[in-house]
Design goal:
The protein is of the alpha/beta class. The chain has 12 helices and 14 strands. Bound molecules: serine.
Length: about 325
Protein backbone atom coordinates (compact mmCIF):
# COMPACT_ATOMS: atom_id res chain seq x y z
CA UNK A 1 0.00 0.00 0.00
CA UNK A 2 1.25 3.48 -0.85
CA UNK A 3 2.05 6.00 1.91
CA UNK A 4 1.41 9.40 0.42
CA UNK A 5 2.20 13.02 1.33
CA UNK A 6 0.34 15.81 -0.47
CA UNK A 7 1.99 19.24 -0.14
CA UNK A 8 -0.32 22.15 -0.81
CA UNK A 9 -3.24 20.00 0.31
CA UNK A 10 -5.35 23.01 1.25
CA UNK A 11 -5.05 24.55 -2.23
CA UNK A 12 -7.38 24.32 -5.21
CA UNK A 13 -6.11 20.97 -6.53
CA UNK A 14 -4.70 19.62 -3.26
CA UNK A 15 -7.96 19.81 -1.34
CA UNK A 16 -9.72 17.56 -3.85
CA UNK A 17 -6.75 15.34 -4.73
CA UNK A 18 -6.15 14.51 -1.05
CA UNK A 19 -9.75 13.33 -0.66
CA UNK A 20 -9.56 11.23 -3.84
CA UNK A 21 -6.25 9.65 -2.76
CA UNK A 22 -7.73 8.84 0.67
CA UNK A 23 -10.61 7.10 -1.05
CA UNK A 24 -8.25 5.11 -3.28
CA UNK A 25 -5.45 4.27 -0.83
CA UNK A 26 -7.04 4.59 2.63
CA UNK A 27 -7.54 7.64 4.86
CA UNK A 28 -4.59 6.93 7.17
CA UNK A 29 -2.20 6.42 4.24
CA UNK A 30 -2.54 9.96 2.88
CA UNK A 31 -1.02 12.82 4.87
CA UNK A 32 -2.36 16.27 4.05
CA UNK A 33 0.53 18.73 4.17
CA UNK A 34 -0.22 22.42 4.46
CA UNK A 35 1.58 25.55 5.45
CA UNK A 36 -0.22 28.83 6.01
CA UNK A 37 -3.85 27.70 6.07
CA UNK A 38 -5.08 24.82 8.22
CA UNK A 39 -7.58 22.48 6.60
CA UNK A 40 -11.14 22.40 7.84
CA UNK A 41 -14.11 20.04 7.52
CA UNK A 42 -13.72 16.67 5.86
CA UNK A 43 -10.12 17.31 4.79
CA UNK A 44 -9.09 17.76 8.44
CA UNK A 45 -11.34 15.06 9.87
CA UNK A 46 -10.73 12.26 7.37
CA UNK A 47 -6.99 11.71 7.90
CA UNK A 48 -3.63 12.98 9.15
CA UNK A 49 -2.54 16.60 8.71
CA UNK A 50 0.98 18.00 9.14
CA UNK A 51 2.43 21.47 8.74
CA UNK A 52 4.85 21.10 5.81
CA UNK A 53 6.62 24.24 4.63
CA UNK A 54 8.39 22.92 1.52
CA UNK A 55 11.00 25.68 1.76
CA UNK A 56 12.19 23.94 4.96
CA UNK A 57 13.87 20.69 3.80
CA UNK A 58 14.17 19.32 7.34
CA UNK A 59 10.43 19.67 7.89
CA UNK A 60 9.70 17.76 4.67
CA UNK A 61 12.18 15.04 5.71
CA UNK A 62 10.68 14.79 9.22
CA UNK A 63 7.17 14.15 7.89
CA UNK A 64 8.44 11.67 5.26
CA UNK A 65 10.29 9.74 8.01
CA UNK A 66 7.45 9.89 10.54
CA UNK A 67 4.86 8.40 8.16
CA UNK A 68 7.26 6.28 6.03
CA UNK A 69 6.10 8.16 2.95
CA UNK A 70 6.90 6.57 -0.44
CA UNK A 71 5.01 8.94 -2.77
CA UNK A 72 4.78 12.75 -2.72
CA UNK A 73 2.24 14.76 -4.70
CA UNK A 74 4.02 18.11 -4.56
CA UNK A 75 1.30 20.68 -5.16
CA UNK A 76 2.57 23.57 -3.04
CA UNK A 77 3.23 26.41 -5.48
CA UNK A 78 2.70 30.10 -6.19
CA UNK A 79 0.43 30.80 -9.19
CA UNK A 80 1.15 33.15 -12.08
CA UNK A 81 -0.43 36.47 -11.04
CA UNK A 82 0.94 36.26 -7.48
CA UNK A 83 4.33 35.25 -8.90
CA UNK A 84 4.45 38.44 -10.99
CA UNK A 85 3.62 40.51 -7.89
CA UNK A 86 6.06 38.57 -5.64
CA UNK A 87 8.80 37.05 -7.83
CA UNK A 88 11.06 36.38 -4.86
CA UNK A 89 8.39 34.35 -3.07
CA UNK A 90 7.62 32.46 -6.30
CA UNK A 91 11.28 31.53 -6.74
CA UNK A 92 11.58 30.40 -3.14
CA UNK A 93 8.45 28.24 -3.10
CA UNK A 94 8.42 26.96 -6.70
CA UNK A 95 12.16 26.34 -7.07
CA UNK A 96 13.66 25.90 -3.61
CA UNK A 97 10.54 24.06 -2.41
CA UNK A 98 10.69 21.61 -5.32
CA UNK A 99 14.44 21.16 -4.88
CA UNK A 100 13.90 20.24 -1.21
CA UNK A 101 11.15 17.76 -2.09
CA UNK A 102 13.36 16.13 -4.74
CA UNK A 103 16.34 15.93 -2.38
CA UNK A 104 14.23 14.32 0.35
CA UNK A 105 12.77 11.95 -2.27
CA UNK A 106 16.26 10.97 -3.39
CA UNK A 107 17.27 10.19 0.18
CA UNK A 108 14.08 8.35 1.19
CA UNK A 109 13.30 6.83 -2.23
CA UNK A 110 9.94 8.50 -2.81
CA UNK A 111 8.15 8.83 -6.14
CA UNK A 112 7.21 12.46 -6.89
CA UNK A 113 4.33 13.97 -8.86
CA UNK A 114 4.95 17.62 -9.80
CA UNK A 115 2.55 19.74 -11.82
CA UNK A 116 3.94 21.98 -14.50
CA UNK A 117 1.65 24.28 -16.45
CA UNK A 118 0.68 25.96 -19.71
CA UNK A 119 2.71 28.75 -18.08
CA UNK A 120 5.90 26.85 -18.97
CA UNK A 121 5.41 28.17 -22.51
CA UNK A 122 5.95 31.70 -23.79
CA UNK A 123 5.28 34.06 -26.69
CA UNK A 124 7.67 32.28 -29.08
CA UNK A 125 6.02 28.87 -28.50
CA UNK A 126 3.67 27.73 -31.31
CA UNK A 127 0.28 28.69 -29.76
CA UNK A 128 -1.93 26.13 -31.53
CA UNK A 129 -1.54 22.39 -31.07
CA UNK A 130 1.49 23.28 -28.98
CA UNK A 131 3.81 20.27 -29.33
CA UNK A 132 5.03 18.23 -26.37
CA UNK A 133 8.62 19.17 -27.15
CA UNK A 134 8.93 22.74 -28.41
CA UNK A 135 10.31 26.21 -27.69
CA UNK A 136 9.99 27.20 -24.02
CA UNK A 137 10.99 30.80 -23.41
CA UNK A 138 8.36 32.03 -20.90
CA UNK A 139 8.47 35.71 -19.95
CA UNK A 140 6.89 35.39 -16.50
CA UNK A 141 8.47 34.42 -13.18
CA UNK A 142 5.87 31.65 -12.89
CA UNK A 143 6.97 30.30 -16.27
CA UNK A 144 10.65 30.51 -15.39
CA UNK A 145 10.03 28.44 -12.25
CA UNK A 146 7.90 25.93 -14.15
CA UNK A 147 10.48 25.31 -16.90
CA UNK A 148 13.25 25.01 -14.34
CA UNK A 149 11.04 22.63 -12.34
CA UNK A 150 10.45 20.44 -15.39
CA UNK A 151 14.20 20.25 -15.99
CA UNK A 152 14.95 19.57 -12.33
CA UNK A 153 12.49 16.66 -12.28
CA UNK A 154 14.03 15.20 -15.46
CA UNK A 155 17.47 15.58 -13.91
CA UNK A 156 16.55 13.81 -10.67
CA UNK A 157 15.18 10.88 -12.66
CA UNK A 158 18.18 10.57 -14.99
CA UNK A 159 20.87 11.29 -12.42
CA UNK A 160 19.46 9.75 -9.23
CA UNK A 161 16.68 7.48 -10.52
CA UNK A 162 14.01 9.31 -8.50
CA UNK A 163 10.63 8.25 -9.94
CA UNK A 164 9.55 11.74 -11.01
CA UNK A 165 6.39 12.23 -13.05
CA UNK A 166 4.27 15.23 -13.97
CA UNK A 167 1.86 16.97 -16.31
CA UNK A 168 1.46 20.46 -17.72
CA UNK A 169 -1.92 21.47 -16.32
CA UNK A 170 -4.12 23.92 -18.18
CA UNK A 171 -6.31 26.33 -16.18
CA UNK A 172 -8.26 24.21 -13.69
CA UNK A 173 -11.95 24.86 -13.07
CA UNK A 174 -13.45 23.57 -9.83
CA UNK A 175 -16.15 24.17 -7.24
CA UNK A 176 -14.60 23.07 -3.93
CA UNK A 177 -11.67 25.43 -3.23
CA UNK A 178 -10.97 28.68 -5.08
CA UNK A 179 -7.67 29.04 -6.97
CA UNK A 180 -5.19 31.42 -5.37
CA UNK A 181 -4.04 34.11 -7.77
CA UNK A 182 -3.79 32.59 -11.22
CA UNK A 183 -4.43 34.05 -14.66
CA UNK A 184 -7.06 31.43 -15.51
CA UNK A 185 -9.09 32.14 -12.33
CA UNK A 186 -11.72 34.06 -14.31
CA UNK A 187 -13.05 30.74 -15.59
CA UNK A 188 -13.87 29.75 -12.00
CA UNK A 189 -15.11 33.15 -10.75
CA UNK A 190 -17.51 33.50 -13.68
CA UNK A 191 -19.64 30.55 -12.50
CA UNK A 192 -19.94 31.89 -8.92
CA UNK A 193 -20.94 35.35 -10.21
CA UNK A 194 -23.32 33.92 -12.82
CA UNK A 195 -25.27 32.24 -10.02
CA UNK A 196 -25.01 35.09 -7.51
CA UNK A 197 -25.48 38.15 -9.78
CA UNK A 198 -26.19 36.87 -13.32
CA UNK A 199 -23.34 39.14 -14.39
CA UNK A 200 -19.54 38.90 -14.56
CA UNK A 201 -16.84 41.45 -15.34
CA UNK A 202 -13.92 39.58 -16.89
CA UNK A 203 -10.28 40.59 -16.41
CA UNK A 204 -9.15 38.93 -19.67
CA UNK A 205 -10.15 40.20 -23.13
CA UNK A 206 -12.73 38.52 -25.34
CA UNK A 207 -10.84 36.34 -27.82
CA UNK A 208 -8.22 35.21 -25.28
CA UNK A 209 -8.16 31.45 -25.85
CA UNK A 210 -6.57 29.22 -23.23
CA UNK A 211 -6.44 25.51 -22.46
CA UNK A 212 -8.78 24.66 -19.59
CA UNK A 213 -9.77 21.51 -17.68
CA UNK A 214 -12.44 20.46 -15.18
CA UNK A 215 -11.12 19.23 -11.84
CA UNK A 216 -12.23 15.58 -12.12
CA UNK A 217 -10.07 15.20 -15.24
CA UNK A 218 -7.12 16.96 -13.56
CA UNK A 219 -7.31 14.55 -10.61
CA UNK A 220 -7.62 11.54 -12.88
CA UNK A 221 -4.51 12.66 -14.77
CA UNK A 222 -2.42 12.81 -11.59
CA UNK A 223 -3.53 9.39 -10.34
CA UNK A 224 -3.35 7.66 -13.75
CA UNK A 225 0.15 8.98 -14.45
CA UNK A 226 1.44 7.88 -11.04
CA UNK A 227 -0.10 4.43 -11.59
CA UNK A 228 1.22 4.13 -15.18
CA UNK A 229 3.69 1.44 -16.21
CA UNK A 230 7.08 3.22 -15.99
CA UNK A 231 8.46 1.15 -18.89
CA UNK A 232 6.08 2.99 -21.25
CA UNK A 233 6.99 6.51 -20.09
CA UNK A 234 9.33 8.21 -22.50
CA UNK A 235 8.81 11.74 -21.17
CA UNK A 236 7.94 11.14 -17.48
CA UNK A 237 7.62 14.84 -16.63
CA UNK A 238 5.69 17.75 -18.06
CA UNK A 239 3.20 15.86 -20.23
CA UNK A 240 0.88 18.20 -22.13
CA UNK A 241 -2.70 17.34 -21.18
CA UNK A 242 -5.68 19.06 -22.74
CA UNK A 243 -9.47 18.77 -22.69
CA UNK A 244 -10.93 22.05 -23.95
CA UNK A 245 -9.89 25.48 -25.23
CA UNK A 246 -12.17 28.50 -24.96
CA UNK A 247 -12.24 32.28 -24.62
CA UNK A 248 -14.46 34.26 -22.21
CA UNK A 249 -17.17 34.70 -24.88
CA UNK A 250 -17.49 30.94 -25.45
CA UNK A 251 -17.62 30.35 -21.71
CA UNK A 252 -20.29 33.06 -21.36
CA UNK A 253 -22.34 31.46 -24.16
CA UNK A 254 -22.18 28.04 -22.47
CA UNK A 255 -23.47 29.62 -19.21
CA UNK A 256 -26.27 31.43 -21.12
CA UNK A 257 -27.65 28.04 -22.20
CA UNK A 258 -28.61 27.57 -18.52
CA UNK A 259 -28.97 31.23 -17.39
CA UNK A 260 -30.22 33.12 -20.50
CA UNK A 261 -30.07 36.55 -18.83
CA UNK A 262 -26.35 36.17 -17.90
CA UNK A 263 -24.34 39.27 -18.89
CA UNK A 264 -20.60 39.34 -19.51
CA UNK A 265 -18.56 42.55 -19.70
CA UNK A 266 -14.88 43.38 -19.48
CA UNK A 267 -12.45 45.37 -17.34
CA UNK A 268 -9.12 44.05 -18.57
CA UNK A 269 -6.19 43.69 -16.17
CA UNK A 270 -3.10 44.41 -18.31
CA UNK A 271 -0.80 42.21 -16.21
CA UNK A 272 -2.94 39.07 -16.39
CA UNK A 273 -3.87 39.81 -20.03
CA UNK A 274 -0.16 39.92 -20.95
CA UNK A 275 0.43 36.63 -19.12
CA UNK A 276 -2.52 34.96 -20.88
CA UNK A 277 -1.41 36.28 -24.28
CA UNK A 278 1.97 34.61 -23.83
CA UNK A 279 0.42 31.16 -23.20
CA UNK A 280 -0.77 28.59 -25.76
CA UNK A 281 -4.34 28.42 -27.06
CA UNK A 282 -4.39 24.63 -26.94
CA UNK A 283 -1.77 21.96 -26.40
CA UNK A 284 -1.20 18.74 -28.31
CA UNK A 285 -1.51 15.98 -25.71
CA UNK A 286 -0.81 12.97 -27.94
CA UNK A 287 2.34 11.98 -26.01
CA UNK A 288 0.25 11.57 -22.83
CA UNK A 289 -2.33 9.55 -24.76
CA UNK A 290 0.34 7.29 -26.27
CA UNK A 291 2.51 6.79 -23.19
CA UNK A 292 -0.07 6.37 -20.39
CA UNK A 293 -3.47 6.33 -22.12
CA UNK A 294 -4.49 9.83 -20.97
CA UNK A 295 -8.15 10.49 -21.64
CA UNK A 296 -10.83 12.76 -20.20
CA UNK A 297 -14.53 12.98 -19.45
CA UNK A 298 -15.55 16.65 -19.52
CA UNK A 299 -15.98 19.07 -22.42
CA UNK A 300 -17.19 22.67 -21.98
CA UNK A 301 -20.93 21.89 -22.12
CA UNK A 302 -20.70 19.00 -19.66
CA UNK A 303 -18.48 21.02 -17.28
CA UNK A 304 -20.80 24.04 -17.32
CA UNK A 305 -23.84 21.89 -16.55
CA UNK A 306 -22.04 20.25 -13.62
CA UNK A 307 -20.49 23.49 -12.26
CA UNK A 308 -23.87 25.26 -12.24
CA UNK A 309 -25.64 22.33 -10.59
CA UNK A 310 -23.03 21.93 -7.84
CA UNK A 311 -22.58 25.65 -7.17
CA UNK A 312 -26.31 26.41 -7.15
CA UNK A 313 -26.66 23.95 -4.24
CA UNK A 314 -23.51 25.22 -2.52
CA UNK A 315 -24.43 28.92 -2.73
CA UNK A 316 -28.04 28.53 -1.54
N1 LIG B 1 -3.85 28.27 -13.54
C1 LIG B 1 -2.48 28.70 -13.50
C2 LIG B 1 -2.38 30.16 -13.40
O1 LIG B 1 -3.22 30.82 -13.96
C3 LIG B 1 -1.74 28.24 -14.70
O2 LIG B 1 -1.04 27.11 -14.45
O3 LIG B 1 -1.45 30.64 -12.82
Amino acid sequence: MKKILVTGSVGQIGSELTMLLRKLYGNDNVVAGGNRTKPTGKLLESGPFEIVDCTDAQKVADVVKKYEIDTIYHLAAILSAVAEAKPNLAWNVNINGLYNVLEVSREYKCAVFTPSSIGAFGPSTPPDDTPQDTIQRPNTMYGVTKVAGELLCDYYFKRFNVDTRGVRYPGIISNETLPGGGTTDYAVDIYYEAIKKKQYTCFLEAGTFLDMMYMPDALKAAVDLMEADPAKLIHRNAFNISTMSFDPEMLGASIRKHIPEFKLDYDVDPIRQAIAASWPNNMDDSAATEEWAWNYDFDLAKMTADMLTVLTKKLK
